[in-house]
Amino acid sequence: MAPVPAPASGSGPVPRRAPYAGPVQAYLDHAATTPLRPEALAAMLPYLTEHFGNPSGSHRLARRARVALDEARQEIADCLGCEPGEVVCTSGGTESDNLAVLGARGAVLCSAVEHHAVRNACAAAGGATVGVLPSGTIDLDALAAALGPHVGLVSVMLANNEVGTVQPLAEVAAVVRAGAPQALVHTDAVAAVGWLDVAAAAAPADLVSVSAHKFGGPKGVGALVVRDGTPLSAVLHGGAQERGRRPGTHDVAGVVGMAAALRVATERRTGEVERVGALRDRLADGLRAAVPGLRETGVGPGSGAGGGAGSPDRSAKVAASCHVHVPGVEQEELLLLLDQAGVCASGGAACASGALEPSHVLAAMGLDPAVARSAVRFSLGYTSTAAEVDHVLGVMPKVVDRLRA
Questions:
Q1: Considering the domain boundaries, does residue 350 fall inside one?
Q2: Is 351 a catalytic residue?
């Protein structure tokens, strides 16, 4: 990457790599991971210290761990709208997605904007993708045309991790039931928890994936809801844990922390959606006003996106998502300068960091590759503040001006 010429102010070229030693002044990468909630940490600590037993055993320490695991499973089930026996504990969203996709029978279909955990698992299973509309929502007509007796599973995420688009899952399920009644419906709800009522929104799905660190729980823990009667083959082989669907020693502390974080996220969802949504709108509107040419991704048509009057229609996105692109500016350089200014953001999915190709999500939505390479994802969360938004609004125009100079 060649250095970018400095503007007349003499601020100097953009360095290739320069570790940022100052404080983080705006963490807006919650879609990659969220800070651990205090409630989750408090719930976990006893099971990281004195209550360390293996829940598969029979002595008192094992029984104590088993009780904690059962109580956490009940809490997770209550929040996700299922029965405790339908909750399969996993190592996170990737494993949950892989288990759903690879454990199903028959051909697999997924939307073209799925997370890599679904997309790559679908490819490994010899499956196919279904296109999306420019809004990022799945093309229901294309889905209907792809269905048939050979299809065993259709996977469509509840909310997109990159641009925040909410999928019409109830309509997806209705199309699948009509065109392939034997097929299962799976939804990756990892990016939806905290912003949508997952228990209601994911109710039409037979399989539902969640990941704890996306809503204030610990990393390395997740769950897959497997509705009663849903056929699913194990991907891993070992012991009889999780009714034989996912063998291996349980991370009791992690599951307990996930349950605590999920409970808090569920209880506070309504207020957080209102508060964070207002911050997101302030950020997005401020960026549109301050940075010429900047456009939002996934907003409603004819809404003034790109600097027109009035606020765009963001009702089809989760409240925490602010995805923008700045034509003529390189994503890598933009993120580097933002980082040096104390702003943590990303170019897209964390699992795709370092990828040379533009986002498959933006490509599926029809964005030109050159435009897609200028995209930045600002994602807010439960710790986001007005001060962080103000900092980004103060920094972003200067960074863009410097790169355009």
A1: yes
A2: yes
Residue 217 and residue 215: Cα distance in Å, rounded? 6
Tell which phi-psi region holds residue 379, choosing left (phi > 0), alpha (psi between -120 and 50) or beta. beta
- Go through 144-160 and write b for each residue having 16 or more CB atoms within 10 A of its CB, e for each that does not: eebbeeebbbbbbbbbb
How many domains is the chain built from? 2
> Nearest-CA neighbor of 113 among 147, 159, 82?
159
* CATH number, residue 294: 3.90.1150.10
Amino acid occupying residue 57: G
Residue 17 falls inside a structural domain: no
**Element holding 153 (H helix, E strand):** strand 151-155
Instruction: Give every CB contact of residue 390 below 8 A, 6+ residues apart in sequence.
Output: none
- Domain residues for 152? 38-267
C-alpha distances in Å from residue 73, one per residue of 26, 54, 85? 34, 16, 8
Q: Which one from 82, 110, 344, 351 is the annotated catalytic residue?
A: 351
DSSP category for residue 349: -
Q: How far apart are CA 266 and CA 162, in angstroms?
A: 22
Which residue, of 203, 234, 267, is where some domain finishes? 267
Tens-binned pLDDT, residue by residue, of the chain (405 aa)? 233 233 333 344 444 555 555 788 999 999 999 999 999 999 999 999 999 999 888 899 989 999 999 999 999 999 999 999 999 999 999 999 999 999 999 999 999 999 999 999 999 999 999 999 999 999 999 999 999 999 999 999 999 999 999 999 999 999 999 999 999 999 999 999 999 999 999 999 999 999 999 999 999 999 999 999 999 999 988 888 888 889 888 999 999 999 999 999 999 999 999 999 999 999 999 999 999 999 999 887 544 444 445 678 999 999 999 999 998 899 999 999 999 999 999 987 655 544 456 799 999 999 989 888 999 999 999 999 999 999 999 999 999 999 998
Q: Is 16 exposed, middle or buried (0-12, 13-18, 19+ CB in 10 A)?
A: exposed
Question: What is the reported pTM?
Answer: 0.90
Q: What is the DSSP letter of 229?
A: T
Could you tell me if 263 and 332 lie in one domain? Answer: no
Both 129 and 141 in a single domain?
Answer: yes
